[in-house]
Please model this.
Amino acid sequence: MTPNLDADSAPTQNRALTEWVAEIANLTSPDKILWCDGSEAERARLTEIAIASGTLLPLNQKKRPNSYLHRSNPNDVARTEQLTFICSPNKNDSGPTNNWADPAETYARLRGWLKGSMRGRTMYVVPYVMGPLGSRFAKIGVEITDSVYVALSMRIMTRMGRAALEMLGGNGDFCRGVHCTLDLNPERRLICHFPQDNAIWSVGSGYGGNALLSKKCFALRIASVQGRREGWLAEHMLILGIQNPKGETTYIAAAFPSACGKTNLAMLTPPPAFAGWKVFTIGDDIAWMRVGEDGRLWAVNPENGYFGVAPGTSAHSNPNAMKMLEHDSIFTNVAMTPDGDVWWEGLDDHPPDGLLDWQGHPWNQNSKDKAAHPNSRFTTPMTNNPALSPHANDPRGVPISAIIFGGRRATTMPLVLESESWSHGVFMGATMGSETTAAASGAVGVVRRDPMAMLPFCGYNMGDYFGHWLTMEKSIKRPPKIFMVNWFRKDRDGNFLWPGFGDNLRVLKWILDRIEGRVSSEKTPVGGVPKISDLDIRGLEISADQLREDLAIKPAEWETEMNSAAEFFDKIGPTMPKLLREKHQHLVASLAANGA
Ligand code: GTP
Ligand code: SPV
Ligand code: MN
Model:
């Protein structure tokens, strides 16, 4: 028996939506269908269900009201790039950096897996809006899921429920997301994207980036294809506003790979010497950017909440995050204290006695594994953020004055590097590399090419993606200036050369000075670097030697870097834009002339 399939019982007149929901219900045979409305009453009800099933553990409600701990299956703690597929009609459209599978075969295979898969379960229908309501940027998605954790998380991460159905109306189109946890068996886990159908099927995982289909699946992989078609950009970028003591605000977007510092930069607290400066968060992970009538690039954050890395978050590194996590948050795979509070490595130097680790096992300081999983996370509404920008819901978005690319690099990459033009900036983004992190399963700390921090998130051929970036120059009459940063360069003893976190504002200030032409930069073969005297290091204990080391361009390291970039460009093959090849050759030649 399939319940409640009558279109009249659905809270929408949209036939395409009701028919699709009926089709998936017929396939999966849930006991119940629940159309989520996003209300507070619904949140309370679903939370009760999640507690009863053990999916959520209530935390100490005095210390952290409305906050819960979720322990995931230990085999399901990070994105699984090897199981993520772009199922475009032609293999070439997905390109050499994505896994590809034939769409018809994949649909057939997934349908086979999903047959009867929701028997005994509730099917949640989760309509959501990406982008500020009423904005030309905004898009609608609907996720069908059998996970109450996903339904509750989507309520935090997106503008979920009634507002989405209202915007959808009777005829609107939407991204179709089918999510089913099955039995969390890695042998039956696949995250599949069908850009031609505006559709995503994600099976066998409950982990954030695999299961919250609004996020990487829709807002990056599917949206990047839409952006190319429609002339805009969907990027793995934070967006922040910097207000100077005169009250002028400048907006910056920055792409760093997973677990490389976006959330932290997006809500940084200025160092004490920067009295009168303020940083405002627009977004911490994803930017949708379109050219405005004024010829500038305008950006919105399509999301409504943050799914952030817990380890390393502390009152010292990110006080705004500590404040926003005080209530109404879901924590995943962190450790729990005896009084029902949360703990993770880097929160403080003193893990309390009697901790339970992320799997619920007793933990002490002699335990060989970490108490919190290195990719443990928090899910929290953006309205909890004390640094939230008054423009976070602005339908127009914000105008972007600088784009920053950055990675996690122990060597080679200086603290900051300035490009000389849009196309040179695209070259910098296209050649960037970063050490892998715990945000994806697999080895950690291995340098790989991760162009524009989009390697795992570009929904189409990477060479065409570079081409799209280059083409955008024609329509952006007043383009943002492009920079690279690296907070993670180390000295010979393995210590970070730069203090990072709030002090990163010092680098952003130099970037603003460059935008306004208040200072000049020193030309090197790879780009412009600051004169040490132009970096505002008031109140910072850092030696001139240390700074010089952090800004150094070492030709031998760059030669290795450019060899690796050449290999990557070769791998892209025929779609690789000639202009970027030429920039590569030019750079190799000038490095040679400089004695590499
Ligand atoms: P995703 O959510 O995976 O996309 O990550 P993200 O890019 O938002 O990274 P996040 O800000 O969560 O930082 C990841 C890790 O890097 C955390 O453990 C931070 O404490 C650490 N981190 C962030 N900024 C800095 C920095 O400036 N210096 C150093 N040394 N570590 C940093
Ligand atoms: C990332 O891995 O870049 C994240 C977390 O932001 S996830 O939502 O899993 O993609
Ligand atoms: Mn991310």
Remarks:
- The first strand starts at residue 32 and ends at 35.
- The pocket of sulfopyruvate (ligand 2) is lined by residues 79, 208-209, 215-216, 258, 285, 307, 439 (CB under 6 Å).
- The radius of gyration is 24 Å.
